[in-house]
Each structure stands twice: as structure tokens, then as C-alpha cells.
Amino acid sequence: MTGNCVSLCLGIVLPVIITFITTRNWDEKMQNPDVYWDAARDIDNPLKPWPELYAEELRLINPERLDDGRPCLYDVKRAFRGTMHAAVFISVVLTFVFVVLWPSIACGLGVMNYEEFLAWTLIMEIWLICATMAAFFVPLISELYRMRKAILKNRINKLLDKHESGKSEEIE
User: Where are the transmembrane segments (predicted)?
Assistant: First the structure.
């Protein structure tokens, strides 16, 4: 129990301390976050340019008309605002569950007899099995969904190309 609380608290506190120690002159650097955004945008893959890769995710209109073919920081922040809020909310909830709720339940149990200990370990095993299954299956299902979506999009594009080529032959 103590190890659980210490590891969770250190996982929260240690990165904050390291960040404050390693980032000197943070205020001066963050006066213009666009400088850092431009540096990140310069990392580009010529085989998959920005408009092709992120136009759908960022819900960009006319991505081919972008400056340098890349979206600005405001567009990216706007597109991922919901994801950011969800990440912050889930982080706060899980921190509360693991640092406050779970240890308080464990402290309230006191000394367990054999049956209570078996029940507690069973709950832990169920929790670990569910977490392992989620860690394995969620990315797999997500990738399968993206593959299915890409296949359907390719089929629709092929049908549209056939339909348009049929119309151009009729006109001639």
C-alpha cells in the first residue's frame, strides 16, 4: 500500500520537479510559441506531406491552399481541443482514483482474514486482466477501424473515378 502511494506520488511530483529544474528562462521562450511550432512543423516526410496526412483529422478546408502546405498552430489547437479536454479529465479522474480512492478503501479494510484477502486479490487480478486486455485490444480495434475506413474510402474513390470516366466517354 505504501509502495503504491509512493510510486504514484513520485510519478506525479518527480516530472514536475525535473521540468522546473531543466527549463530555465521558460517565460522568455514561451513569449512566442509559434517559434516552437514552426520547428516542429519543419520535421516533415516528403512521401506523406502535411495536407495529405492531417487534412481530415484537422478538418481543414482546402488543405492544398495552406501556407507551406502546413496548418498553423491555431488550427491544430482547435482541432484537438476536445481530445485535450478528455485527456485532462481522464488524468484528473485516474489520479483521484489511484491516489485517494483506492488507498482509502485499502486503509479502511484493516487486518484481513483469509477470505477477505482472497477477495481482495481476486479484485486485483480482475483489474489487472481488464487493464491488460484494454492495453492489447484497444489499439488493435482502433487500427482495424482505421483500416476499414481507409478501405471504404478507396472503394468509394474507385467508384467515383469509374463514374466520372464513364461520363467523360459519353460526352465525347
Answer: 6-23, 86-105, 117-141
pLDDT in tens, the chain (172 residues): 677 677 777 888 888 888 888 776 666 656 676 777 766 666 666 666 666 666 666 776 665 555 556 667 777 788 788 889 999 999 999 888 887 888 788 777 778 899 988 998 999 899 899 999 999 999 999 999 989 998 998 999 888 888 887 665 555 5
Residue linked to cell 483529422: 57
Q: Are residues 55 and 140 in the same domain?
A: no
Within-domain flag for 38: no
- Gap between the Cα atoms of 57 and 80, Å rounded: 9
The residues that bridge with 25 in the sheet, in sequence order, are none
Grid cell locating 164: 466520372
The candidate with the shortest Cα–Cα distance to 79, out of 87, 71, 67, 88, is 71
**Amino acid of residue 116:** E
One domain, residues 167 and 124 = yes
Cell numbers describing residue 17: 520537479
Residue type, 24: R
